[in-house]
Each structure stands twice: as C-alpha cells, then as structure tokens.
UniProtKB/TrEMBL annotation:
GO molecular function: isomerase activity
Protein name: Bifunctional phosphoglucose/phosphomannose isomerase
Pfam family, one: bact-PGI_C
Domain of life per record: Bacteria
Keywords: Isomerase
Domain SIS span(s) in chain numbering: 22-161
The organism's taxonomic lineage, starting at the top: Bacteria, Pseudomonadati, Bacteroidota, Cytophagia, Cytophagales
Entry similarity comment: Belongs to the PGI/PMI family.
Length: 331
C-alpha cells in the first residue's frame, strides 16, 4: 500500500495519458442530468467529481450508491458507472436499470462484467489498470477518467486538464512536506477516535479520509461538515464526558471555505478545546479546488498508511469486506 500511495502523482499522470489517448464518442449531444454510480473506492471518486463540477456544469450531477436509480433517469441522462473490478453488484444493478431507461452510459473499469457489457453493447468506456487489486489505491484513475468522460460527452471543457497538471506538480514539489505532516497526524490519531470537520465544499475529501482510516488503519473515524454541524452536532459536545480523552479533533481548512464557515470553525474550535486536549488544524495547499482536494487526499492517504504501522495492522487486507462478499455470494 505504501508503494501505491507513493505513486499517486504518477498515477494521475498515467490516468491523463489514458484519457488523452482514448477514442470515446457519445451519441447524445444534450443531457438534462448526470448520474454517477459507484461504491467504495470507486464511488468516492464520483463524490469528488460531483463537488468539483458543481460550479462548472449547467446540469445537475448526483452520485448513486445503491442497487436502484432515481425515477428521473432516462433519455436525457448521462449515466457513468465506475467500478474498479467491474463486478460490483450494486453498480451492475444500476447499469442494467440505466439500460432499461434508455440513458446514455459510460464506463470506467478495469474489467469484469461491466467491461463485458460495455464492449458487447458498444458503449463508451475507459479501461484502467487492475493489477494492484486495491480499488481504494486507484482513486486517481477512476476520478480522472470520469472527468474525461464528462469532457467527451461535451459537458466539461479543457480546464480540468491544466488543473490536473498543476496538481501533479504540486504533489511532487510538496512530497517531503506531505509525509512529515502525515506522520504527525498519524501520531495524533494513534489510540484515539479521529473526529474530522470540514466545510461542505470539500466533504468528499474528509469522507475519503475516513474510508482510508477504516480500510488501511482498521480504525473507526467520525466526519461532519460545516455549517450543518453547527445546527445539531455542536450541541452534542456535552455527553458522555468520559470519551473526551479518547478523541482527536482535526479541522480541515481550505481556500474554498465560505467566510462565515471560517468564522464558525473559529468559534466551534473554542468549544472543542474546552473538552479535548488534542485539537489540530490543517490548511490545504494549491491554487485551485482540484489542487487542494488532491493535495489533501494524498496527505490523508499517507496518514492512513502511517497509522496502520502504528496500529500494527496490514493496510492491504480487508477481512470484513471479504467475509461479507463471500457470504453474499452464497445467497
């Protein structure tokens, strides 16, 4: 896993190369909406894409994480199915429903049933490398190829390519600093329950961090967002007092935080510090949303790997998921 995290910037570069060399054509020139289907490591890429294009696309984008699709999916829908293995049962179910609704469908996968469907039906698809067998370590591929599908569908202009190249340069320039920051955060989280707070603009990045801590470090984590948490969770910072010494709070700040959100973070931090000794902050680096998101993703991936070492666990294994898949396959 450490080697895969180390190669994240190169993975982004390779993903761009796949997107640039691809020949992808969609039959419909107009779309009323976009639906991205994916689970786990493939699905979180859809969440990040949705957040990134929120101020760029003139049609709504939603992410579907389940077996069924919204009733509006139909002729005016661009449906993107993202599955590393190509065999994710929820995503396959969504594809079959999308096919029945006459939506335009594009695929991002390394193989499996989804690639078979795409090739058999002559549908647009981008093939990503599958040799790592670690979907969560291949976010760069799934995220970038989804952006390319939106581009080839005529919904997204070329700007994302420049921002991706800038992001790659930033990650390479900051590689040493990122590892130092990650090691410090891992030590903060060791034997603690990480509580992550971020603005709603970058919620998918914090959720990705939570997922990486779950899978790589085999550790629970809690995430909530500003300003929503100020309308409910902030009141919960009273009981049970016995857990305060087990918490480690991280405030994730970015240049895309609304000024009122920044103020809310400042005020809420005082409440946290009255309860918890370990309250830290981190500021995303980069000039664009994509740079800041990818910077944080890479930083947090390193945290999860370092924390796995501190927890003395193998970041590559996912025993509970393997158990669930095995039992589901029997029924």
């Amino acid at each position: 896993m450490k080697q895969l995290v180390e190669g994240f910037a190169q993975q982004l570069r390779d993903a761009m190369d796949i997107g640039e060399k691809a020949t992808v054509a969609f039959s419909s020139p107009l779309y009323n909406n976009v639906v991205i289907a994916g689970m786990g490591g493939s699905g979180i890429g859809g969440d990040i894409v949705q957040a990134y294009v929120a101020d760029k696309l003139e049609v709504p984008v939603i992410v579907s994480k389940g077996y069924t699709l919204p009733a509006f999916v139909g002729l005016g829908t661009l449906f993107i199915a993202s599955s590393f293995s190509g065999n994710t049962e929820e995503t396959i179910s969504g594809v079959r429903a999308a096919m029945n609704s006459d939506a335009s469908i594009g695929f991002v996968t390394s193989g499996g049933e989804l690639l078979r469907i795409a090739q058999e039906e002559g549908m647009p698809h981008l093939i990503i490398p599958g040799k790592s067998k670690q979907p969560r370590a291949c976010l760069g591929y799934s995220l970038v190829e989804m952006l390319y599908l939106l581009h080839y569908a005529g919904l997204l202009d070329d700007t994302f390519k420049t921002e991706l190249r800038q992001s790659i340069s930033l990650l390479e320039e900051q590689a040493g600093i990122i590892k130092v920051q990650a090691s410090a955060l891992a030590n903060n989280f060791h034997n603690k329950l990480p509580v992550l707070y971020v603005s709603n603009a970058l919620e998918p990045v914090a959720v990705r961090f939570q997922q990486q801590l779950n899978e790589n470090a085999k550790q629970l984590c809690h995430v909530n967002v500003f300003p929503e948490m100020n309308h409910n969770e902030i009141v919960g910072w009273q009981h049970p007092e016995s857990i305060y010494e087990q918490l480690s709070v991280l405030l994730i700040r970015t240049a895309y935080d609304h000024p009122r959100v920044r103020l809310r973070m400042d005020l809420s931090k005082k409440i946290f510090e009255d309860k918890v000794q370990d309250v830290v902050e981190i500021e995303a680096q980069g000039a664009t949303y994509l740079e800041q998101a990818l910077y944080l993703i890479h930083l947090f991936d390193w945290v999860s790997v370092y924390l796995a070492e501190l927890n003395n666990v193998d970041p590559n294994t996912i025993d509970n998921i393997d158990y669930l898949k095995g039992e589901l396959s029997k029924q």
